[in-house]
């Protein structure tokens, strides 16, 4: 944990420190997202707390993004459960990325670290369950823990199709490599953004796929290659303050619902988020699908 804190401090010094000489605007943007895997409601057979999702696998996430000029510092926290295999673990990743532009192509390499262990995920999950009068989830923490390296590359290119005012179409290719704890993957997707109302409300649609080309213990038992889709609405609250609301569906497997609510099979992982940010009208939905 100390190594992670030191890395975050080091990355912050790089991000906000000396001039890198690349399109310096001295502007800082940030976003903070809360992501959950289910929404509970009364809607089936008169029972309360029915889930849209299974309340399993990726149950809660927090995403912090800091931007300055062409650099990005990202910190992501995930708490992961498996009712089927009877374990849980938490992940925290910290990465530093630099954006380069060559003609019409944007290229963003990133390096960082990932830590796997007990980071109070059970407490966070069950505190929320207690507040909502939902049955608590008690699973033993995995003994597989430690720290490892990660690297990723992000390619994108955008153009305006002019179907609607201020719209933007962006093909994206993401490739992520993990030395441990998470499987490496490649993800080709397409993003379409459009303004809906007077520079106050905009929408983004995303569709594509995810292919995992390595396997890692525990995490790989819960994911599979397949199609993914997402929808996000961005609201300008006041001047450069924004709020995002969105949902994504990604391929998954071996998720189990709480027996109180049934034993449905879930082949897709829903993720729903609320994001608060500053000066992020350009930020893409891909930043909220960090798994």
Tell me what the structure shows.
This protein has about 290 residues and is mostly beta strands. About 10% of the residues lie in helices and about 55% in strands. The protein has two helices and 15 strands. The strands form two sheets. It has a twelve-stranded antiparallel barrel with strand order 1-4-5-6-8-9-10-11-12-13-14-15.
The whole-number mean of residue pLDDT values reads 85
Oligomer: single chain
- The separation of the N and C termini measures 21 Å
Low-confidence stretches: 1-26
Count the strands?
15
Spatial strand arrangement across the major sheet: 1-4-5-6-8-9-10-11-12-13-14-15
SSE succession: HEEEEEEEEHEEEEEEE
Estimated radius of gyration:
19 Å
Overall geometry = globular
**Class based on secondary structure composition and strand pairing:** mainly beta
Q: State the major sheet.
A: 12 strands, antiparallel, barrel
Portion in helices: under 10%
DSSP helical segment count = 2
- Share of β-strand residues: over 45%
Brief characterization of the structure:
By secondary structure, this protein is mostly beta strands. Helix content is 9%, strand content 53%. The chain has helices at residues 2-16, 121-131, and strands at residues 28-36, 40-41, 50-51, 57-68, 71-82, 87-98, 100-102, 105-117, 146-156, 168-178, 185-197, 201-212, 226-238, 241-256, 265-278.
Helix and strand layout, with pairings?
Elements: H1 2-16, E1 28-36, E2 40-41, E3 50-51, E4 57-68, E5 71-82, E6 87-98, E7 100-102, E8 105-117, H2 121-131, E9 146-156, E10 168-178, E11 185-197, E12 201-212, E13 226-238, E14 241-256, E15 265-278
Antiparallel strand pairs: 1-4, 1-15, 2-3, 4-5, 5-6, 6-8, 7-8, 8-9, 9-10, 10-11, 11-12, 12-13, 13-14, 14-15
